[in-house]
Automatic annotation (TrEMBL):
Coiled coil: none annotated. One of its GO terms (cellular component) is plasma membrane. It is found in: Cell membrane. Residues 285-407 form the SSD domain. The keyword RNA-binding does not apply. This is Transporter. It comes from Candidatus Thiodiazotropha endoloripes. Keywords: Cell membrane, Membrane, Transmembrane, Transmembrane helix. It comes from the Bacteria. The keyword Protein biosynthesis does not apply. InterPro entries: MMPL_dom, Mycobact_MmpL, SSD. It is a multi-pass membrane protein.
Length: 921
């Protein structure tokens, strides 16, 4: 046996004292651990798994706050799309329309459905809008009992449906899809010019936030409906939308439970290959399983809201725990082969491994702890539960495994075996020979190639102070970040994007700068106000009376609220026209569109077909342009139209666009791209339009979105002029586009600062632990090699537009975790080199060979096991876990190369006193 086992003493009184203590009280300690593990297992059923962007990101973020404000006040925040595309002919067939109505009714019957916000031909809020000699006409598009089976009656009903959809430019684009003869999408406004055919009908459902609490049963009902209706070969079924999307991520993870069984099988196989006995295969699994159960139990007990990405936590604990288990199990068996005594072997194994295990686990915990500095809920979850899990590994692996092996003694044959394999000796001799000769240029060349590749992919040479690595895209494509490209979910989204105006929502909340007042009940404004003809003078007197009486009299002064002012609606109209002309915005909707439609309908003479040229907001200026002698006031007409709409519609029909106080509303739109660069540009373009027009006659009276959050505090939201240095912040947007931009902001804030904070913390911890700045610097060199390679991988994913793997916020968590993992190997190698230098009386060559034969080979086994643990992450349909698996796997491969080659070379060159001690000179 080599000098590595020549000494039983570690020269560390703390380690030896700890080993004596746990061996003396092994039975009480094992029983306590067993009881606590059982209690934790009982809490696992309380795990709260959900995918909710609103809880992932910081509520103070302006986009998150705006999104929550829009959802709470107008709904339409949990939209799901169910689209039916007919294969032959057009959609105006009784069986097809009835099928849409049937699906509508089933979707409405699902728990948490917000029926008043559903948009489809069967929805009660979607009506035929026309006019006759008596005024406006509002009717349901189809009868509540569906299209009749009588051919003559069905023809009349379908004709009415067709007229109601195709003559309504306000809501028609969200009800129906047109295609030309080649099957290409036709814009709603060009359907007649291109002789297009109506091929698709959409069902847009809205669900309350409570759907997030029942994702699994809810989405299983949706999938059952998809499967059922997909069997009908007369039409194509396509499904997408945020709640379905996020819920199916959770369901896919649950459905692939068997992949985790495969992962455990791989770990057991690797352990059997290494130790060739049941104890070496079973006890590490028992120890790591205890850590996983304890951590999952804490998750359930704390009721912390978790995402599907938290599946990485038990997998990391399995992977890291097995790494520590291999080290301590090997040490126990080596010592047992030497002495033949289980208790002595357990004492030696614990005392020799507890210090490096503690050091490596502390650095792992630091890597997790830095994640808690980022205000993202699943980062904090990784931090809290990751640190707890890492801490338990000291007891469930480094301590428990030797105690179990001591309690269940091995056979006489196993006692005589050191469990060293021929390949381990060969690997150690090969690497040591490589490092002491010209072969050292090979690992150096590998590292240089990795660095050069990373420089190219990150484009760091063209970096600026605003973006150090422009080649690394930090934005997110939510669909590709959630699901792999080949999954049915992505295929449906891409197909829907070809049919519908867009599949990503955007909302722009608009609030009046001036709050509305209570209506006068007992006291009223002076009668002389009625006689004032000058609008400006009348407004001034109304404001004066309001201040005196602290109420508002609508009879002489008109209705309150910005949505009763024609100039505001006209500016909204202009905003929507600009948005609809944008290449990446497919459709918009707002209350202004209803006013335009009413104006078109009522401007036409009774019996005449409405003219599209009358689809406008009737401002005073617009009326004078059409007829200089028209002395009507635009506000008066708008308020008349508002009254008509309020009378003719049902309760809740307009709530998704304007609030009952007429002072708050929202502009909705749908974005036809999911590319992270393009979605960011759309956001910037919308904000720039608002910036350019916020002092227009109407928009000067409103605030857009939110700027600071949270939703319950709007006092800081103003709309003052943007002046350099004034601290002005452009307003946030809502909808899925807002959530997308929020993730970009968080990613840009943390993509570099987070890992650098981890590096700084690890540097300080390592320097204190090893009492050596040189050792700390060596570990930092290895860490930065791995980190820069991670950025290089992000740049590569960006260059090939693999949005499942670009370095968006959900994958940046891998950076700190990978850095913590990489330090583990360095710490074990550094500690073993010191031990071997003492055992060989300063013979560096022998110490290096012994270290590589023992700890080095254990590192290789650990990496193989670690990579095997990520098989579930790489083989589900979930792209986010796939991305994490790819990043961490790349880091592990680089870590093993640098720990076994670069670290020994740096130690030999720099000769840190921690390793060389008295032999340094």
């Amino acid at each position: 046996m080599s000098g590595s086992t020549a000494k039983q003493q570690t020269n560390n009184a703390w380690a030896e004292g700890y080993a004596d203590f746990v061996i003396k009280y092994r039975w009480p300690l094992m029983m306590i651990l067993l009881v606590v593990t059982i209690l934790a297992a009982l809490q696992i059923k309380n795990l709260d798994m959900r995918n909710d962007p609103d809880t992932l990101l910081p509520p103070s973020n302006r986009y998150v706050a705006t999104n929550l404000y829009a959802e709470h006040n107008f709904g339409m925040g949990n939209l799901m799309v169910f689209t039916l595309r007919i294969n032959e002919g057009d959609v105006y067939k009784n069986w097809f329309v009835n099928k849409v109505q049937e699906i509508h009714n089933r979707l409405v019957d699902l728990p948490t459905a917000r029926e008043s916000n559903f948009i489809d031909v069967a929805a009660k809020k979607i009506k035929y809008m026309g006019a006759d000699e008596n005024g406006l006409v509002f009717k349901r598009l189809i009868p509540t009992e569906g299209i009749s089976s009588d051919p003559e009656k069905a023809a009349q009903q379908l004709a009415f449906l067709k007229e109601g959809i195709e003559n309504n430019p306000v809501i028609g684009p969200m009800l129906i899809g047109f295609e030309d003869a080649e099957g290409n999408k036709c814009e709603f406004s060009q359907k007649d010019e291109k002789n297009c055919t109506a091929k698709s009908l959409y069902i847009i459902g809205d669900y309350t936030d409570e759907v997030k609490e029942i994702y699994l049963p809810w989405v299983r009902e949706i999938r059952a409906m998809m499967d059922e209706y997909s069997e009908d070969d007369r039409f194509e079924v396509l499904v997408a939308g945020e709640p379905y999307f996020l819920a199916w991520m959770l369901a896919d993870l649950v459905n692939k439970w068997w992949l985790f069984v495969i992962s455990f099988a791989i770990v057991i196989a690797a352990l059997w290959f290494e130790f060739r006995n049941w104890r070496g295969s079973l006890f590490p699994i028992i120890g790591v399983s205890a850590t996983i159960i304890l951590t999952l139990g804490l998750m359930g007990f704390s009721a912390f809201k978790l995402t599907t990405m938290m599946v990485l936590t038990p997998m990391l604990l399995l992977a890291i725990g097995i790494g520590h288990s291999v080290q301590v199990t090997r040490r126990f068996m080596q010592e047992q082969a030497k002495s033949g005594d289980c208790e002595s072997a357990a004492r030696s194994a614990i005392s020799h491994t507890i210090v490096p295990a503690t050091l490596s686990i502390v650095t792992d915990m630091v890597g997790f702890a830095t994640l808690a500095t980022v205000d993202i809920s699943f980062y904090k979850a990784y931090a809290y539960f990751g640190m707890f899990g890492m801490l338990t590994l000291l007891f469930t692996t480094t301590t428990l495994i030797p105690l179990l092996m001591m309690t269940f003694p091995c056979s006489h044959r196993e006692t005589k075996e050191g469990h060293e394999h021929e390949w381990e000796t060969k690997v150690g001799s090969f690497i040591s020979g490589l490092l002491t000769g010209p072969g050292k240029l090979i690992p150096i060349g590998i590292v240089m190639a990795i660095m050069a590749w990373s420089v190219y992919e990150t484009d760091i040479l063209n970096g600026t102070s605003e973006d150090l690595m422009p080649g690394v895209e930090k934005g997110i494509n939510y669909s590709r970040a959630a699901f792999k490209e080949k999954s049915i979910t992505i295929q449906h989204i891409e197909r829907l994007n070809e049919i519908m105006p867009g599949v990503i929502s955007v909302s722009i909340p608009i609030r009046g700068k001036e709050p509305t007042s209570e209506l006068c009940v007992e006291t009223y404004f002076p009668e002389e106000i009625y006689d004032i003809e000058d609008p400006q003078e009348k407004l001034a007197q109304c404001e004066k009376a309001k201040q005196e009486l602290n109420c508002w009299d609508p009879d002489p002064c008109g209705a309150q609220g910005i949505f009763n002012e024609a100039d505001v609606l006209a500016d909204i109209e202009a905003l929507e026209e600009w948005m609809r002309s944008h290449e990446h915005i497919g459709f918009t909707g707002s209350y202004a569109q209803y006013i335009r439609l009413v104006n078109m309908l009522l401007t036409a003479e009774p019996g005449e077909q409405p003219d599209i040229k009358d689809l406008y907001i009737p401002t005073s200026k617009k009326l004078r342009e059409i007829d200089p002698d028209d002395d009507r006031g635009g506000d008066d007409i708008v308020q008349l139209y508002n009254g008509l709409l309020e009378t003719m519609t049902e309760e809740g029909d307009m709530d998704s666009f304007v609030m009952k106080n007429w002072n708050e509303g929202v502009v909705m739109g749908f974005i036809n791209t999911m590319d992270p660069v393009e979605t960011h540009n759309v956001t910037m373009d919308i904000q720039q339009y608002i910036e350019d027009h916020k002092n227009d006659p109407g928009f000067s009276k409103v605030n857009f979105g939110l700027r600071s959050g949270p939703v319950d505090d709007l006092s800081g939201d103003t709309n003052e002029l943007s002046v350099d240095g004034s601290g002005y912040v452009r307003p946030g947007l809502g909808g899925f586009l807002g959530a997308t931009e929020a993730t970009r902001e968080v990613a840009v804030d943390n993509w570099l600062s987070g890992p650098l904070l981890t590096a700084a913390a690890v540097f300080v911890i390592a320097a204190l632990i090893f009492r050596s700045l040189v050792v700390s610097v060596i570990l930092m060199v290895l860490l930065f090699i791995t980190l820069f390679a991670q950025y290089g991988l992000g740049g590569y994913m960006t260059s090939i537009q693999n949005w499942s793997g670009n370095l968006a916020f959900h994958l940046q968590v891998a950076l700190s975790i990978a850095m913590g993992l990489g330090i583990d190997y360095g710490i074990y190698m550094m500690s073993r080199l010191k031990e071997e230098m003492q055992a060989t009386a300063g013979n560096w060559q022998e110490a290096l060979v012994n270290t590589l034969n023992t700890t080095g080979s254990a590192v290789i086994i650990s990496v193989v096991v670690l990579l095997g643990c990520f098989i579930p992450l790489l083989n589900t349909d979930l792209a986010n876990t796939w991305g994490l698996g790819i990043y961490i796997s790349q880091a592990l491969l680089i870590d093993v190369v640098t720990a076994l080659t670069i670290l020994p070379m740096l130690v030999a060159w720099l000769k840190p006193r921690f390793v060389f001690g008295e032999y340094k000179n």
